[in-house]
Structures are given as structure tokens and as C-alpha cells.
Design brief:
The structure is a homodimer. Chain A has twelve helices and 13 strands. By secondary structure, chain A is an alpha/beta fold. Chain A has two domains: 122 residues, Alpha-Beta Complex (Aspartate Aminotransferase, domain 1); 242 residues, Type I PLP-dependent aspartate aminotransferase-like (Major domain) (Aspartate Aminotransferase, domain 2, 3-Layer(aba) Sandwich), CATH 3.40.640. In chain A, the strands form three sheets. Chain A has an eight-stranded mixed sheet with strand order 2-9-8-7-6-3-4-5, sandwiched between helices. At the A-B interface, α1, α2, α3, α4 and α8 of A face α1, α2, α3, α4 and α8 of B.
Chain lengths: 376, 376
């Protein structure tokens, strides 16, 4: 067997840390049908160098989908099609920073984003967060000392902590971005995956402000292998993106795939699929929550309202890296908190994902985790 | 009509400058069949985050194809799958340079590559070329004054000049890259599109040397909208690519598309299609050559042996930018040489593409160009 996928979980392990969707949720038939229809049209435009901003019909379909999903009018002219959020972050670093510039990330944050920033030789400053997201006082403190080009934030159903930035803090963050002239790169990948309550208005609603950039992706609502996502931003930002050397040279970032996925959106299949995911993930969140309360004592956490993750604080004396070593013999795995920290903090925290496995595997996994913790 | 493709030529214009394949050559049916088969397998691996280096089965198929096409053994372990040459150049800039570093390009060169380098805030030094490619003496001269991180070269059927780097110069360039410790980014996109004679051994044959990176793409041999290409390089270079933040975060660059195109390679369709392209483009080159000799006096050029382009030197007193203005009223277009120069040179040169149009359009276009030039 040759390798195809990025992560391969050994079959005897339940990896409660795995943060990718399970392959069983990918709607192969929906995508197959859309591909069949695209090919049957006999038009080869989608095989040509694509328009820099992304296929106009795809952007129109996506705008309509986002208008319903985000509950606010989305404009196809404000959308730029990307090859996923990683590619978007990479391009934004190239165009809006130079080596040695300072940028802010949340402490803790999605651990591979800072690796993209490090590849661009940026100076990464961590800003503290709590159960309501970014702590504005911590941001203000750091703005006295640093002049960041941007802040990278995951404002909803945060990875790893599950927290969501409150409306008041969002307003204040946007004011500060204007006052101190830095960009907000808002990773809103989990905005549409809310299982309880009403999510706050996404940053995509504030792009009349040149400092606000909203990042979206099909990775969690359809399939990551597509490498397809989008940026919503002010016309000035969109203009800088489409006039970059990369886009001028290669054309739009993913014309072939976006032309196929356009069909999945236009048919209403994507909306159906997102609803199906919500109905699939909601009970998984609930069961993990009740199993944690029942079986894992001495932990504190705030249950998430959407997304993928639980963030557990274990007793202070426990070290999650050492615990992960022990967990191997219990055939269970998770992610140590330190992985998400740029300061080596969160030593006693662990990230669990409730979205990857079905209920029975979650139960098995939590029972194995309980057994592993019992000796500590 | 919403925009889908990057370039849209008005229907009353024959644009002899257009450097993209014509949509009529894209093998829609071959790709449709491969997609149908991939979906019919029922395996959703290609929708998951892909392995960083690129799908193992795709790399195996590509290695076998390149082994035949390049006439030398290609190893799947030495291949890294990209989203096209533009994305490859962008990633290489991120990983191997910092803002302010110096790099070398050919004078003249494919005009959008330097725009990618400029976005990375690199200091771009032009190195002269002639009808045998890069002039080694010019390179040596500049190596006395600058310490480049890399040289970007198009060593075969050069864009825009059509020239091919001789074997002796290749050997010398590789020696210099070792002696002066810079990378060679060899854009070999036209290696497989040779219509006369035998092409020199590609740089892909020399990747046991850590300084040599060969860039390939499906844009000219299959379809640019796929955003699919490859890098062949030493294990140390491959390792740096696969451990980058971008790949760690998003997984392989194009798992969905590469899984489909794998079928086009494995069936033998890609090889058939490349042979078909060669048989299609060879007579177009020949007819453009004979029409130029017959109808356009007072020009000098070296006929290309492959690729896409003729590079014409008009009489010294002519300015190609002004000529392009006049050409509008003759319903013909081309590219002025200055577009490919980072020094504002080549004012009296123009680039024509013989690959885009069929023979009758080429004849029409050359006759219009003749009429346009007649007044000058």
C-alpha cells in the first residue's frame, strides 16, 4: 500500500486527538454526480487557466450559500477563491508581510498556522485567550509594545479550546485593528458547524472595513482533499490578491475543482450535507460531554457549542506529553496542549475531537482514557 | 456571462501573442473517463487531507510516465506534487529565501515569474541569454558581485525566445551552482513538447545534486485549470518541502485532482495525448516559420524546435509597444518584447505563439501582421 492520506491511525488505536473528518462522512455520491454533470456539459472552460479571482459562477453559487448560511448578504465580488485556508494564510503572508515583521497569534492556537508564519520568517507574539476568546486587555497591552501586520484568530469554536469570541470583544477587536492599522485574519472554518445556540455574526459581515479578512473552507463542510476555500474581504484586499504574481501566472487557484463543486452548491446538496453533518456531530458532542463528566474526574472544561474540539484541563501535576506515552498501551491517543502553545504552556491540557468518531468509538475511547488516567 | 477563464480574446482578433493552450485541445473525454473510474471505486481517500509529498500511486504513475518521456529513470520518492509551477516557485521562495535576498533570472524571461519573486521582496538580477540559452560568462560575471539564493531558468524551448540551453552550458551551470552554492530552479515545462531533433537531457537527470530542482507541469501537456505539477529534487529538498507549515497544515497540494489524473496517466492516455499535441503543434510551427519567411521581411529569428514561441527581432527603429497599438486596427495582436525584460530592453522584439491557433488562423494572423507592418 502506497500512502494517500496525511494521517493514518493504526487500526487498534482510538485517536481522540485526530482533527480531520472521518472518511465515512465524505459525500462521494454528491461530488460524483456534480462531476458527471460538469463533464456532460462539454464545455472545457474549467480546464483552462482560470480567472484570477475564481470562477464567476462558482463565486455566485458560493455567495448565495453563504448568504443563507451566515444569515447576511454575501457578494460574489467580495469573494476570492483559494486552495484552502492554509494556502490563503500563505498568500496573505507573502503579500502583506516581509521577513522580520511581527504578527500576533492566539495563545493557544491551531498549531500549524504558526508554522506557516515561521516559514515566512515572521516574529510571532502570543496573545492570551480565555473561554470567551481573545482577551482584549492582553491585545492592548501588546499593541503598546509591538506593531503587528496582522492577528490570526479563530473566533468561533476555536481550535483547540472550543471558545467563541463574544460580540463585544469582536467590536473592540475591529476598532483596535483600525486604530493600530493591522489586519484581522479571521479563520471562520467552524462558523457553519454550530450545534447549540446562535453563533455570533461572523467577521465576514465587517469586510466593508479594509482591516477585516474572513477565511472560509470546504475542508470541514465537504472534503479537505479538494483544497478549496475562500476569502471574503474589502475590494482593496481582493485587488491585491488578484494582482499578485502567483495569480497572474497560474490563474485562479483551483478552476477544475471549483467548477465541479459549483454543482454541489447549486443543487442544494451542500446545504443538505452541512445539515447532515450538524445532525451527525451534535450527538457526538453530547455523548463525549456526558462521558467525560461520568468517567473522567478532576478535569475542568467549557463544553463547546460547535466545531470539533474539547479542551480539558487535567490536574496541574499531570504532564500531557508523558500521559500520551502511557496512553499507547491503552490503545488510545489525544493531543497534548503544549502542541498548541508557542510558549510551552498548557502542559496539563489535552485536546479531544468529538467529530471524528461515531458514538460507540467515542465511548470506547473515553473508557480507555479513563483507564489510562486511573494510574495517575 | 460571468468570467471563468483568465484570458478572453475578442472574437474579431487573432492574438498571436496568446501563450495558453487553445480550449479545443483539452482532452475532456480522457479526463471524464478517469474521473468516472475514480468515483466508481468507492474509495474516499482522495477526499481526505492528502499525504504531504503527494498521493503515492499518483507519484508512481507519474514516475513511470517521466521515465519514458524524459528517457531516464524517475523515482517516485524524488517527486513532490505541486499545484503547478507558479505554486512551486512561490513555495520555493518562501522556504529558501528571505525578503531582500538576491536571485537571478534570465534576460529575457517568462514575464510573470519575476512578479512572484517581487512579491517575496527579492532583489532580481538579470543574466543575459542568447540563442543557446543562458550565457555562462554573464552568469560568472554576476557571481563575482552577487550571492544569489537561486537562478530561475527555462532551459528548453525558452519563453519567450524559444532557445534551448546547450549540454556544455548545462554542465557548467551545475558546476557553478555547486561552487557558489545557489539553487537552479529549472522550469522544464516544455521538455516533452519537442517537435524536431532530440532535446538535451533535462535537469531532472541531475537531482542527485542538491542544487538542482526540476519543475514540471500538466498545464501544457494536459490542462492548466487542473493546477497540477511536480518538483523533482534531492531528498534534502523534498524533506524541506514536506515539512513546511503549508504542507503540514493543508496536507498534499492537490489530492482530489491528482487522484483523477492518475487514471489518465495509468491508462496510457496522457502519453497518447502528448503525442497528439506534438503532431498538432509541429505543423503549426512549420507553417508559421514559412509564412514569416514569405511575408514578414526585415526580421531575424532562430526557429524554435519545440515549445510554443517565436521570438522576432524587428528592425531597430521599430517600437513593439507602438506597433501593438497600430495592430488593433488590423485585428491582430502579439506580445511586445519589453514585457519579458526586467531592464526595459527588447523594445524591437515581439513574441508570437504558434501553438494556440490552427494553421488557417495562423495564416490569417500573419497576413494581418504583414499588413500592419507594411506601413512602418
Amino acid at each position: 500500500m502506497l500512502p494517500i492520506t496525511q494521517s493514518q491511525i493504526p487500526s487498534n488505536i482510538i485517536d481522540l486527538g485526530a482533527g480531520e473528518p472521518h472518511q465515512s462522512v465524505f459525500p462521494l455520491e454528491m461530488i460524483r454526480r456534480a462531476a458527471e454533470e460538469r463533464f456532460a456539459q462539454g464545455d472545457t472552460s474549467f480546464l483552462q487557466y482560470g480567472i484570477e479571482q475564481g470562477d464567476g459562477y462558482f463565486r455566485l453559487a458560493l455567495a448565495r450559500f453563504l448568504t443563507r448560511g451566515y444569515g447576511l448578504p454575501a457578494n460574489p465580488e467580495s469573494i476570492f477563491v483559494t486552495a484552502g485556508i492554509s494556502s490563503a494564510l500563505d498568500l496573505l503572508c507573502t503579500l502583506f508581510t516581509q521577513s522580520g515583521d511581527t504578527i500576533f497569534v492566539e495563545e493557544t492556537t491551531y498549531f500549524v498556522a504558526p508554522r506557516i508564519f515561521a516559514d515566512h520568517h515572521l516574529n510571532i507574539i502570543p496573545i492570551a485567550i480565555d473561554e470567551n476568546g481573545l482577551i482584549i486587555e492582553s491585545l492592548e497591552e501588546n499593541l503598546k509594545r509591538f506593531k503587528p501586520k496582522f492577528i490570526y484568530t479563530i473566533p468561533i469554536h476555536h481550535n483547540p479550546t472550543g471558545s467563541t469570541l463574544t460580540k463585544a470583544r469582536r467590536t473592540r477587536l475591529i476598532e483596535l485593528s483600525q486604530g493600530f492599522d493591522f489586519l484581522i485574519l479571521a479563520d471562520e472554518v467552524y462558523q457553519l458547524l454550530t450545534y447549540a445556540g446562535n453563533p455570533p455574526t461572523p467577521f465576514a459581515a465587517y469586510i466593508e472595513n479594509e482591516h477585516v479578512i474572513s477565511l472560509g473552507s470546504f475542508s470541514k463542510i465537504l472534503a479537505p482533499g479538494l483544497r478549496l476555500g475562500w476569502i471574503q474581504a474589502h475590494a482593496k484586499i481582493i485587488k491585491r490578491l488578484v494582482t499578485s504574481g502567483l495569480l497572474d501566472s497560474g490563474g485562479g487557484m483551483n478552476p477544475f475543482t471549483s467548477a465541479i463543486i459549483r454543482g454541489v452548491i447549486e443543487s442544494g446538496d451542500l446545504e443538505k450535507h452541512v445539515n447532515h453533518l450538524i445532525e451527525t456531530y451534535r450527538p457526538r458532542l453530547q455523548i463525549m460531554n456526558s462521558l467525560l463528566r461520568q468517567h473522567i474526574p478532576n478535569i475542568t472544561y467549557t463544553p463547546p457549542q460547535g466545531g470539533y474540539f474539547f479542551w480539558l484541563h487535567l490536574p496541574e501535576h499531570l504532564n500531557a506529553i508523558e500521559l500520551r506515552q502511557q496512553a499507547k498501551s491503552f490503545h488510545v491517543d489525544f493531543r497534548q496542549g503544549a502542541l498548541f502553545s508557542s510558549t510551552g504552556a498548557a502542559q496539563n491540557c489535552i485536546r479531544l475531537c468529538f467529530a471524528h468518531y461515531d458514538e460507540s468509538h467515542i465511548e470506547q475511547g473515553i473508557l480507555r482514557l479513563k483507564a489510562c488516567l486511573a494510574g495517575n
